């Protein structure tokens, strides 16, 4: 099952918690056991899993990236957003998360974040929900 959600990012550089959106799609799918792939088809944004309990973690992440890869520098990319492309490459465009008992298996403090590096924008997130074939036969027969 492939789903798509849109997220409006509110700022130039921001971390948007999309965990509940992804969890809702899993609930709607009815898949009890499997894997969820969360993918962002944009070259100036990324997807990651990290701590969501303390917002300072994501603030520290963004400020550290900005120090390492400043928006203004001697980049050759003509559109003026080379820093966003570099940050997106480093973060990556997808994550895989285990589904068990119809729920995402995340660590105690973990959340899924859309990492915006060139906003504000409307971003699409693709969510591929893969059911475990052996689990499907178990719950399909009950």
Description:
This protein has four helices and eight strands, in the order E-E-H-E-E-H-H-E-E-E-E-H. The chain has 142 residues and is α+β, with helices and mostly antiparallel strands. The protein has one domain (2-140): Jelly Rolls (Sandwich), CATH 2.60.120.460. Strands 1-8-3-5-6 form a five-stranded antiparallel sheet. A three-stranded antiparallel sheet has the order 2-7-4, sandwiched between helices. Strand 5 (94-100) and strand 6 form a beta hairpin. The two termini are 21 Å apart.
Write the layout of secondary structure elements.
Layout: E1 2-8, E2 14-17, H1 19-29, E3 33-39, E4 45-51, H2 55-68, H3 82-91, E5 94-100, E6 103-104, E7 110-116, E8 122-131, H4 133-140
Antiparallel strand pairs: 1-8, 2-7, 3-5, 3-8, 4-7, 5-6
CATH class: Mainly Beta
Distance, first to last CA: 21 Å
Q: What characteristic shape results from the CA principal axes?
A: elongated
Q: What's the CATH topology label? A: Jelly Rolls
Number of strands: 8
Lateral strand order in the biggest sheet: 1-8-3-5-6
Structural class: alpha+beta
- Gyration radius (Cα, Å) is 17 Å
Annotated CATH architecture: Sandwich
H and E order? EEHEEHHEEEEH
Number of helices: 4
Oligomeric state of shown chains? single chain
The tally of domains stands at 1
Give the proportion of residues in helices.
25-40%
Average pLDDT across residues? 94
In this structure, how is the largest beta sheet organized?
A: 5 strands, antiparallel
């Amino acid at each position: 099952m492939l789903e798509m959600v849109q997220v409006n990012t509110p700022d130039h550089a921001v971390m948007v918690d999309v965990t509940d959106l992804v969890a809702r799609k899993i609930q709607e799918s009815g898949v009890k056991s499997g894997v969820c792939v969360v993918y962002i088809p944009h070259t100036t944004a990324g997807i990651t899993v990290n701590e969501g309990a303390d917002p300072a973690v994501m603030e520290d992440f963004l400020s550290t990236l900005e120090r390492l890869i400043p928006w203004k520098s001697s980049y050759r990319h003509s559109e003026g957003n080379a820093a966003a492309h570099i940050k997106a490459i480093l973060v990556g465009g997808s994550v895989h998360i285990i589904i068990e008992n119809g729920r995402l298996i995340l660590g105690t403090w973990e959340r899924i974040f859309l990492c915006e590096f060139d906003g504000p924008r409307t971003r699409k997130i693709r969510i591929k929900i893969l059911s475990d074939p052996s689990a499907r036969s178990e719950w399909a027969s009950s």
